[in-house]
Design goal:
Largest interface: A-B, 50 and 50 residues
Keywords (chains A, B, C, D): FAD, Flavoprotein, Oxidoreductase
Organism (chains A, B, C, D): Agromyces protaetiae
Number of helices of chain A: 11
Helix content of chain A: 40-55%
Pfam family, one (chains A, B, C, D): Acyl-CoA_dh_M
Strand order of the largest sheet of chain A: 1-4-5-8
Largest sheet of chain A: 4 strands, mixed
GO molecular function (chains A, B, C, D): acyl-CoA dehydrogenase activity; flavin adenine dinucleotide binding
Distance between the termini of chain A: 30 Å
CATH class of the largest domain in chain A: Mainly Alpha
Oligomer: homotetramer
Family (chains A, B, C, D): Belongs to the acyl-CoA dehydrogenase family.
Strand content of chain A: 15-25%
CATH architecture of the largest domain in chain A: Up-down Bundle
Shape of chain A: globular
CATH superfamily of the largest domain in chain A: Butyryl-CoA Dehydrogenase, subunit A, domain 3
């Protein structure tokens, strides 16, 4: 057992840390200005392109991708990098072309795509020329139960016809999101986990209607393409657009979600570290009742509790990454569920305390804590609510799974 | 001891309940449309005027005001009405001309205003012709400590000159908010709680700069006039605009905050009841893993915990109201602090669980729970953060106050 | 609505308070000495008899009993008295002949007993000459589910034959506990809630075996007769010993548990108030790092949180008592469940904090907080674990009960 | 970074695991019988001697001691072994001669003792022939603040004279506890952390009065020598009994507490794992409302939460051990404080849930959960209450330490 990172990872982490602190965080104010100048626009702003160019030049590009075309890092090696990008959810991940949902979509194409699919969609994604969306969640059913999916993907000659309504398709408001990966049912009579398939739907295909953007606690998340509600009205795509075979959809989704959860958790830890750093500054500067609030017992207690939660949970995420690397996603299931439950919840709590330390300012856009809170809160629902995972984990622990 | 309300109150409460359910809640969708049609506008929308006319016709007007010009209700009698208005924070209180900060400002003028001040400002407020703002919190200091206030109110001949920066002046973005009550220091050398004064500043006075609106999470609260940052650049008003005498500001603020906290707490309970009603519907309709989620143990547990919290805290608020009515605000201080701490916190928790029951929809504007959450979260900071009150309450209980 | 008690109750409460503070609490040390002098003995100690004589002389006797033979108090009137007795669980209730399980047993006999049963058992109980036990819980089944009960009560001519194993029969180690009320099944084929009956079994009946005493966190609760495991080996009693008719057992148990829960909750609040009073003294006396710990933020916070919990929950218990008095136990079910869940849990938390304030002393028998903790902890299991009630309450609230 | 243990440790851990499961846990019932047969006796029971002989034969002896005379394990290597011993606090640690306070005392003597002190006291301790006590905490002062210590150690010629009152001297009721390490002040005028010294006081020295045993909740912890209150009445020992020099007491105590806290935390995790294993069995066996309680949502949730807490905290303890091994106790201070706070608290929570799963049985001595709870609860006070550490950790994190 050894808790120090290997030297190569340590070096890479330091380079990413420097980039985040020196380039990314100062650029946040620029992004806000650029967003304010173009209300209603959903594309990436110029500052993002600048950061991407700079990061790419430094070799900090596609770090998330384990195999060919990526940086070749293990989950364990990538984890601290993902954490650092979480310090700036709006600019960190995207600067390195490591932003969700593109990361998951690129992994999926790299693992399950045909050569043609890779050439057409993976390459421009890896190159940062286009973006993508993942269309799984539906408004009318509890999507935590995959058997509920109502979207249909029906074979008709050389084509598939897609019919259904999706929402929370993150990034899809961005017109540069050129390709949608859509989950639907090809066979409602197949066994429970063989009914679903995944298919590639180019944005411009006839019948694809972007209905509206959704908000998260009032935020439209315009910086990263928002969250769209999309209707697929008898949308026809070539049969070759299917990813894997018919009925592979559930298995592919599971494969995609494992690393995705690790990434989410690591970024969430970074969000919390950012907030904690802001809290430390604030608490030392702000004076109430004659002394800095850093001298109040309750503030110390909050900071200490936050530190403890972060240290313990980071180790659990790292161990999960290590398990995925050494025994595989399947055998790491308990740990993946554990961090999926525990990390966003703890981060939400840390951010709630951070808001409290900042007082009314903490609710506003003057400091990022309220918006980070909204992001963390959403993670407790993304990929299934906490409770579904808690129940599954408990069942397994009780030997009844 | 008797837990049943008196018959007159019971009757009034039923009439308010009917108005809220039959008129107000259905009007929320109309309000959203009207807001969408006029982005960037901060006035009350037409639907509000309609509801006000209708409520006034039914005698449901200025119910909050205990004395002359109001409905003559005690705090205990008004409490269940305030709770009902909380079911719809955007339309409930304003329909009855019972919305903050106007309520507190009207009480203040009714109690401490001169006849001239009443004629000029209280009457149009009671009549719903104008609205008002309360300018206390400042961005640069911890406002929970009144001695920190940096705004200056300096006598100069027949005038006072006001200089300072305020923020979180709720309602002040609305151009109909014609009058601002500003707290500042007239004498920095006076004893700690005799340094502050309050003064009336008409909106249009030279030197009043409305700097920008603030957001709470991502919400601009445009429906009720937003939250403004305001700079007072050597603003001159007649000396007769002072409320009470020099040095009375702290005492007036305390008098204003007592009932204000009760109102906030009661409305917050109504917010939670609304959310709980929504949760009950949703849980019975939504199916996951083959059965309504109302049959899941965790959902039952949440609903039960919410019910328990609401029942216990409502009683505490009611007892506090009764104490204010019978022994006065000062002797009800422990209870006022207790509800100020406990109610918003519990309501936040209840709303957080409601979001979880609604899944991703709960984050969006399709159901009101996320926006209600933001409102409840803000209450934990309004009029001082929880922790200040917790410390004061503990100190008193330990016999050291 | 009115939060002040009626004058007669207020007066009675003051007399009880004086007795508790002046007589009962100082007697605790005497009790400890008397217990230490007679290890292994389970009877009431002489000091109890002294206190009883004195209380009875002052008319403070059988205060719990609403009807004839009792004090005629409503549940609402008795509640504050029960709370005061909770300040000293070992001596408070018993001094006024208001100790569980005798209270519940006397209520049961008063309501459901025949004249003969009343003469034989109720009278000496009301007179304090004998004590009693209630034998419901069984070791081999989950007793929160009444249909699980394994004890059989079988009619055989003029007799009933009782066979089964009970435990947690509080008070039954005391040889003066002359009568046991035993719950068992008379008809396993009857509808779910008509299978059970209750029967009177005199302690000395052949076949009654007191197996052993049980401990609660190491405490044997010898002061109030401990908790016994009892086996009934084909125990024969006259048919006239049945309480009510065959199949009435479940209904009688429910009737008994309503007031019992109120009493438990009120006493628990008294336990917490006692602990809080001890904490206040301790925190003002104990010095660490140069100042009384009452000046530490965390201690203030604990005290404040405890005060808030107690005030809110007391009101909920009082309202529940009022509902029982005005609309009956059945319609007060939600509230009874609510307090059953919320009060012991909050009191446990308050006592846990009290232990922390006392440091290692808090774990020992030098201050009563650890033993009070054990008592409160046990309440979360007595009459069914929290979770059973939480589930039932949630189900009802969701409209699915 | 690597989460797998080294092969030698893995092997040793398996041998210890087998010993605990095959020998120690079955012996618990024997211990209870032997304790019951000899009430009031505080020595080790025969079963302990049997287990010790067997463990020693297998080379499982003094595993805690890093250097000469011990097993040569690092903290990281010893950690999983300490955890396993925690499965049976009464028999696990002592079987391997790894029980507190002897472990800390042996470490202390090994590091700071003179050759003579080692020969006289360390050797028989390592050999299991005698036991020892550590006399630090005092009843009259808050011992979390070392400057409060009231005991005096005064030089008088060739002797030191010790005067003071100690309590919570664990193990000291056992007549075989032949040597006491006593902390007191040699110079009240020295700098804050140079006033204290430590000295060896043989049990039989004139003036040593064992006043009484203390209980933790209702447990006397007779199995491991209880907890004594001891008065030192002008007790004279040779000057050579001083450990280190005058004024070294605080530093020695700090050195002793670091590993001690790790051990406590690891054992506490083992206690929780034991409880969780018991809960899993119970939940699968116990039927309520027609199905095993393992199928109840709330039980699954508890088990899942417990698993998550244990996994995260174990990693934090292991990392702390690794830091102590690689950068030293001083630089591991934040982590040591973190686990000191977080582990006992989480374990208490896990045990509280275990009690709830067991119902009333969980309160009794029929299952070990209530007694384990008492042990975990005590850990939140041992070596200073949580809050002292939380405050210190927060202060450091805020950059103000």
């Amino acid at each position: 057992m050894e808790f120090a990172p290997d030297p190569a990872t340590a070096d890479l982490v330091e380079r990413v840390r420097a980039f985040i602190h020196d380039r990314v965080i100062p650029a946040e104010a620029v992004l806000e200005e650029q967003l304010a100048e173009t209300p209603g626009k959903w594309n990436l702003r110029p500052i993002v392109r600048e950061l991407q160019a700079s990061a790419r030049e430094q070799g900090l590009w596609n770090l998330f991708l384990p195999g060919e075309g990526g940086a070749g890092l293990t989950n364990l090696q990538y984890a601290p990098i993902a954490e650092l990008t979480g310090w700036s959810p709006k600019l960190g991940p995207v600067s390195f072309n490591c932003a969700a949902p593109d990361t998951g979509n690129m992994e999926l194409l790299a693992e399950f795509g045909t050569d043609a699919q890779k050439t057409e969609w993976l390459e421009p994604l890896l190159d940062g020329r286009i973006r993508s969306a993942f269309c799984m969640t539906e408004p009318d059913v509890a999507s935590s139960d995959a058997t509920n999916i109502a979207t249909r993907i029906v074979r008709d000659g050389d084509e598939y016809v897609i019919t259904g309504r999706k929402w929370w398709s993150t990034g899809a408001m961005n017109p540069d999101a050129a390709i949608f990966i859509v989950m639907g049912k090809t066979d409602v009579d197949a066994p429970r986990h063989r009914q679903q398939s995944m298919i590639l739907v180019p944005r411009g295909t006839e019948g694809v209607e972007i209905v509206r953007p959704l908000t998260v606690f009032g935020y439209d998340d315009r910086d990263h393409g928002g969250h769209a509600e999309i209707v697929f009205h008898d949308v026809r795509v070539p049969a070759a657009n299917l990813i894997g075979g018919e009925g592979d959809g559930f298995a592919i989704a599971q494969a995609r979600l494992g690393p995705g959860r690790i990434h989410h958790c690591m970024r969430a830890l970074g969000m919390a570290e950012r907030a904690l750093a802001l809290v430390v500054s604030r608490a030392n500067e702000r004076v109430a009742f004659g002394r800095p609030i850093a001298e109040q017992g309750v503030v110390r207690q909050w900071v200490a509790e936050s530190r403890i939660q972060l240290e313990a949970l980071r180790l659990l995420v790292l161990k999960t990454a290590w398990l995925m690397d050494t025994v595989g996603n399947r055998k790491a299931m308990t740990e993946i569920q554990a961090i999926k439950i525990a990390v966003p919840r703890a981060v939400q709590e840390i951010l709630d305390r951070a808001i409290q330390v900042f007082g009314a300012a903490g609710l506003s856009s003057d400091v990022p804590v309220a918006e980070l809170f909204a992001g963390a809160r959403a993670l407790r629902l993304a990929d299934g609510p906490d409770e579904v995972h808690l129940n599954a984990l408990g069942k397994a622990e009780l030997g009844r799974a």
